[in-house]
Amino acid sequence: MSGVRDALAAMGLPRGDLHELPESTKRFPDGAQYRVEIPSTEGPACLVAVLHEAERLDVRVHRVSQGSGVFMLTDEELDEVAALGCSASVEVSLFARPNAGWDTSATAVAPAGGGVAAAVRGQEQLVAVLEDARRAAAHGIRSVLLADVGALSAFAALREAGELPAGMQAKMSVMLPIANPATARVLEQMGASTLNVTPDLSLAQIAAIRAAVDCPLDVYVEVPGNLGGFVRLHEIPDLVRVAAPVYLKFGVRNAPDIYPSGGHLEATALLLSRERVRRTRLGLELLARSGYEPSTSELGAAGLAVPVQEALRTDAQGSSPETSTRP
Fold this sequence. Notes:
Order of helices and strands: HEHEHEHEHEHEHEHEH
Number of domains: 1
CATH superfamily: Aldolase class I
Oligomer: single chain
Number of strands: 8
Number of helices: 9
CATH class: Alpha Beta
Mean pLDDT: 93
Strand content: 5-15%
Helix content: 25-40%
Largest sheet: 8 strands, parallel, barrel
CATH topology: TIM Barrel
Distance between the termini: 55 Å
């Protein structure tokens, strides 16, 4: 096996998982080691709940993400989410959907078909996903989640061609397996802005991925039940040390799956939003007690895809949005 390991090293990839857990010297553009993300923030009311709870518990939330999809929000809701994020200097990342698991795919619901659920199924669905990205951009959003390699490739091409704003970020979803350094590097080379690694990876496996890429990693430290339900709060100091720059994501283990969210689930979604911020407070207090004092970012720091306040609205035919900058 030494021949394969030598070949991997020649490619700039680790020879194996990094069990020595080397400290990462890589950083966010502002020099920080970690930031905080609150996932499953499903619309304006949930974002308000997150922001209020963050202020109450003195938690600095740098990014919120949503899972139901851009197309599950009205134009008014998109404007409100963008305005809230811009005002609070918080990145808002919305899922560009649909995927196979949300349509008539029989394979996606078959016993061995779970890996297909996140795939973009057919060219018409690819069009829909990219239209979600364009619509989000037109409303001032500057970050979308993608869960498909082909969708990332097409997204990057549209961004390069000026059909999407140059600063539009592609946040790779946890639903796309990113479980080894080679996969992580391919996605980074294709234009991914941040990579949500598979939640069950060991510290040594995460360290190996960090050695292979420079872009931020998104790591669940409490994982929703449908992704394994792991509670890794006590690993936060080492996660930051080996994975920087890293977004620490705080889900809730014992919680229902609320995708796609809506008014019928709003009470649950709001409670979960508040509890995710509380879980973050628990994690940050544990980090403080550890004695390790890594650096974190201010709100609105460089590299955060904060929504813009002024954005050209698409016309009824879906014409391309213009790039706009925050005041």
